[in-house]
Design goal:
This is dCTP deaminase. The protein is mostly beta strands. The chain has a single domain (about 5-55, about 70-160), classed as Distorted Sandwich (Deoxyuridine 5'-Triphosphate Nucleotidohydrolase, Chain A), CATH 2.70.40.10. It is built from 2 helices and 13 strands, in the order H-E-E-E-E-E-E-E-E-H-E-E-E-E-E. The protein has helices spanning about 5-15, 110, and strands at about 20, 25, 35, 40-50, 70-75, 80, 85-95, 100-105, 115-120, 120-125, 130-135, 145, 150-160. Strands 1, 2, 3, 4, 5, 7, 8, 9, 10, 11 and 13 form an 11-stranded antiparallel beta sheet that branches. It has a two-stranded antiparallel sheet with strand order 6-12. A hairpin with a 2-residue loop joins strand 3 and strand 4. The radius of gyration is 17 Å and the shape is globular.
Length: about 180
């Protein structure tokens, strides 16, 4: 079953599923964030790692990504993603996924309609941490992403608890608090 706004709010406030939790959708002059009918629009923090091709990487290898290719930057307002490139960022919200809930992160249509794509990723039962967000610019021009505003929606689905949760298997991204690069 997909959780509705009442169920999400109850789990967020009683079980710390989302922290900080915004109990309504904020939309005034910002890319929306907060609680919606059947999901939660998370925000992107103000720190980014911008992919910058250089002499250190002739191939992008998820098993051996040279972190020198991802330049750290912070901003008060926005980041410009170079054409046909991407940035890594993190959510403002810290998520603690209950053992019987799976979250699916989906990009917001406001950005998708501008050629800015957020990678779809699961938040597995038992996982907790800040979400590392991959934001791609599929256009031939620089693309603007606003810090401290909405970036993606999380849809929560409840089911029977799995026999082995992400926490049980000691997943490699458990308790991540910053922008986390790929791990094996």
């Amino acid at each position: 079953m997909v959780l509705n706004d009442t169920q999400i709010a109850e789990r967020a406030t009683t079980h710390d599923m989302i922290d900080p939790f915004v109990d309504r959708q904020v939309r005034d002059d910002v890319v929306s964030y907060g609680l919606s009918s059947f999901g939660y629009d998370m925000r992107v923090a103000d720190a980014f790692r911008v992919f910058t091709p250089n002499m250190f990487n002739s191939v992008v290898d998820p098993k051996d990504l040279d972190d020198r290719a991802l330049v750290e930057t912070t901003t008060d307002d926005h980041i410009l993603i170079p054409p046909n490139s991407y940035v890594l960022a993190r959510s403002i919200e810290y998520f603690k996924m209950p053992r019987d809930v799976l979250g699916i992160v989906l990009g917001k249509s406001t950005y998708a309609r501008s050629g800015i794509i957020v990678n779809v990723t699961p938040l597995e039962p038992g996982w907790e941490g800040h979400v590392t967000i991959e934001i791609g610019n599929g256009t031939p021009l620089p693309a603007k992403v606003y810090a401290n505003e909405g970036i993606a929606q999380v849809v929560f689905m409840q089911g029977d608890p799995p026999s082995i949760s992400y926490a049980d298997k000691k997943g490699k991204y458990q308790h991540q608090t910053g922008i986390t690069l790929p791990r094996l």
